[in-house]
């Protein structure tokens, strides 16, 4: 390096604000001296996460050098995650992870939040100066663009990118990627897609494939999006963003089981991404794979210990999943799952004492856990304050109310549960998602194992009906209704098969009487129910068939 180059580097370092985060004082002092030798002047030293985040909240920082391992508490990944989430780092700021650890688990976890680079210990001045000089040079060259992006002035940022492309060939890849991202941000998919396509014609770059897949998803070209993302993962199995998008694509195709499998594969590669575990837990719950859901919620809770994304909802969801798993299981596994649910919910109450709603919500789930273990006196006792709250005029939000109704069903208090759900349906009549949850619980007010059995009977009944085996269809639907007698679709399925049998030459009046009985079960079906029109149609048809 020439004297002129050294002077230029020194000037660059001298204009920037540095933050060093490391729990060893000697290392902090050593890095500070190296930075001073490079020309840096404004350098702040902190030992742990809390003062680091606080400093960034009140001070502009250009370069962060953060050790990954910081002793007990938050690590470097947690700091980066929090700074990104709270938007305490400008796009022009540089974050370098410093570590003696090079395990794939650490690197993959940290990479989820996109540090600008890594420095592996031991570090000397030459290494530090070389690594930072290149990053700072790029930072300075692209500063005007990043400033406009920070201001969310995307049209101006686009103009600056276009102007820089012929002038800054060294940063062409960064400019093209940023330009495509900006077009995507402003909804100009055609220009973004053209950039991705042009780039891929010259070179197979992962970010261009990912961007193309994202646009295909947003424009509802699910089949093509899934193909593109699968090819990306085959070529670059560590490109984690592709797994998330592929799972989304499969889910939107109506293939949630495959979407779950994709996320499970992603977690094998990068096991420390809290938000991915959370998404996996939700998918597994929707798929009625409660064992996988409880594992994913358990990991979400564990990873949340030092994460900005920690939430009482994670604890509640784990408690609910364990409640479902333990229900009706008096064996050792069931008891362990029930005990774990109670422990998790108690931990939640202590961890989030400022949330006044949590003790009540916790009691609702705990009562269901006790009921599932046939400890009914304990369930009724712990539920007493919840009843008092309702008696005193308290109105539950939709999720709490539905959860309470679920517990009432488990305790055999069906009338109370149905009354509460009726009130919730009126209060949230303009919220389709909430009405759907209410409807599902009314149809299947049983534990998840019974739900799975009833759904299996229903599937087999539909297959038998479609193949023309009416007797088998009647048997399957009847078995399902023994589990969930009020299920609207199942009752109507059976009515439809009985009518078909009647019209196929078996003019047995008892068949029509059975139809009448099953339709009478649905006499109070609300108009908002998705099966209501079908109920009216079959009722009308039956009247026309009656002698």
TrEMBL record:
Gene Ontology BP annotations: phosphorelay signal transduction system
Signal peptide stretch: none
Pfam short name (any one): Response_reg
InterPro entries registered for this protein in UniProt: CheY-like_superfamily (IPR011006), Sig_transdc_resp-reg_receiver (IPR001789), ST_Response_Regulator (IPR052048), TPR-like_helical_dom_sf (IPR011990), TPR_rpt (IPR019734)
Modified sites of kind 4-aspartylphosphate: 67
Residue intervals of the Response regulatory domain: 17-136
PROSITE patterns to which the protein is assigned, alphabetical: RESPONSE_REGULATORY (PS50110), TPR (PS50005)
Chain positions of TPR repeats: 454-487
Keywords annotated in UniProt: Phosphoprotein, TPR repeat
Organism superkingdom: Bacteria
UniProt protein name: Response regulatory domain-containing protein
Organism expressing this protein natively: Marinobacter lipolyticus SM19
């Amino acid at each position: 390096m020439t004297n002129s180059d050294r002077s230029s580097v020194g000037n660059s370092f001298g204009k920037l604000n540095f933050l060093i985060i490391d729990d060893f004082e000697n290392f902090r002092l050593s890095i500070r001296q190296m930075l001073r030798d490079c020309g840096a002047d404004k350098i702040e030293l902190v030992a742990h996460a809390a003062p680091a985040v606080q400093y960034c909240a009140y001070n502009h920082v250009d370069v962060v050098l953060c050790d990954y391992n910081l002793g007990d508490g938050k690590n470097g990944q947690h700091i980066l995650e929090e700074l990104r989430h709270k938007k305490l780092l400008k796009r022009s700021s540089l974050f370098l992870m410093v570590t003696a650890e090079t395990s794939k688990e650490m690197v993959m976890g940290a990479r989820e939040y996109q540090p600008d680079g890594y420095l592996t210990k031991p570090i000397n001045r030459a290494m530090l100066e070389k690594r930072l000089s290149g990053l700072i040079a790029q930072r300075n060259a692209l500063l005007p663009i990043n400033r406009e992006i920070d201001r969310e002035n995307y049209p101006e940022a686009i103009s600056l990118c276009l102007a820089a492309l012929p002038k800054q060939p060294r940063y062409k890849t960064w400019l093209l990627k940023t330009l495509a991202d900006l077009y995507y941000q402003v909804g100009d998919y055609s220009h973004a897609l053209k950039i991705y396509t042009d780039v891929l014609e010259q070179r197979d770059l992962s970010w261009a494939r990912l961007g193309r897949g994202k646009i295909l998803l947003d424009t509802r070209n699910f089949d093509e999006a899934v193909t593109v993302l699968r090819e990306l993962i085959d070529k670059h199995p560590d490109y984690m963003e592709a797994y998330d998008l592929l799972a989304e694509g499969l889910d939107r195709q109506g293939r949630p089981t495959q979407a779950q499998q994709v996320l499970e594969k992603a977690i094998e590669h990068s096991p420390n991404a809290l938000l991915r575990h959370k998404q996996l837990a939700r998918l597994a719950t929707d798929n009625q794979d409660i064992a996988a859901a409880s594992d994913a919620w358990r990991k979400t809770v564990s990873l949340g210990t030092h994460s900005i994304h920690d939430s009482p909802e994670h604890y509640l969801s784990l408690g609910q999943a364990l409640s479902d798993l333990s229900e009706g299981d008096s064996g050792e596994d069931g008891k362990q799952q029930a005990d774990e649910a109670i422990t998790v919910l108690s931990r939640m109450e202590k961890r989030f004492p400022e949330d006044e709603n949590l003790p009540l919500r916790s009691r609702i789930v705990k009562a269901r856990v006790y009921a599932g273990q046939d400890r009914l006196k304990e369930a009724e006792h712990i539920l007493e304050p919840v009843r008092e709250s309702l008696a005193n005029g308290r109105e539950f939000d939709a999720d709490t109310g539905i959860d309470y109704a679920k517990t009432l069903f488990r305790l055999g208090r069906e009338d109370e549960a149905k009354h509460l759900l009726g009130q919730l349906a009126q209060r949230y009549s303009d919220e389709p998602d909430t009405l759907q949850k209410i409807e599902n619980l009314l149809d299947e007010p049983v534990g998840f194992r019974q739900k799975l059995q009833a759904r299996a009977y229903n599937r087999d009944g539909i297959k038998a009906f479609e193949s023309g085996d009416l007797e088998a269809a009647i048997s399957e639907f009847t078995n399902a209704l023994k589990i969930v007698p009020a299920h609207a679709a199942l009752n109507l399925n059976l009515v439809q098969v009985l009518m078909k049998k009647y019209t196929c030459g078996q003019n047995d009046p008892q068949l029509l009487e059975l139809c009448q009985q099953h339709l009478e079960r649905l006499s109070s079906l609300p108009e908002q129910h998705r099966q209501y029109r079908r109920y009216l149609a079959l009722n009308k048809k039956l009247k026309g068939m009656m002698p």
